[in-house]
Amino acid sequence: MSMVGQIIGHEIGHAFDPQNSQYDSDFNQVNWLNSEDLREYGNRQKCLIDQYDNHDDPSFGRNLKGTTTVIENVADMLGIKTAWMAYKDIKGVQPSIIGFEDYSPDKLFFHLRALTWCSSYDTHALSRQLKAVHGVKNFRVNGIHSNMKEFAEAFQCPIGSPMNPKKKCTLF
């Protein structure tokens, strides 16, 4: 559920990214948000931009540019939130998995999403990463998960820790 739901939610989330949110259902360029909502949503997107700019990546340090990745970061954030809501809407008790009885289903949900981006460190040049529209993989996990109170609750992360910062970016 986590993987498929996150991908579907990510792609639907593109309707709300800074570029595609400027179009209506007939793909006419219009602002369908009123000026106050548009300003507030811009501020919320700016939070993600600033968070990515300040992300300390193992391969690139704090040299990333959130303005180049905000479209994908918005979609990542909406994708995981959509998948989480669908997962929590499932009725009944979630069975445990043999060998993972000590993990709650909520923890497994986040582990499965993290495994999607599991890889070695990026080895390409910083100049290439600065042009990339997708964020670095560890931000797509740690950066996005750190904005979710649900993650912090599942893993009991103390407030103010890297995975449960006091200031979280939210879109809706």
From TrEMBL:
Identify the Pfam families for this entry.
Peptidase_M13 (PF01431)
Any GO MF annotation of the entry: metalloendopeptidase activity
Signal peptide stretch? none
List, for all copies, the residue spans of the domain called Peptidase M13 C-terminal: 3-170
Which Gene Ontology BP annotations are present? protein processing
Report TM segments: none
Q: Which residues form a coiled coil?
A: none
According to UniProt, the name of this protein is Peptidase_M13 domain-containing protein
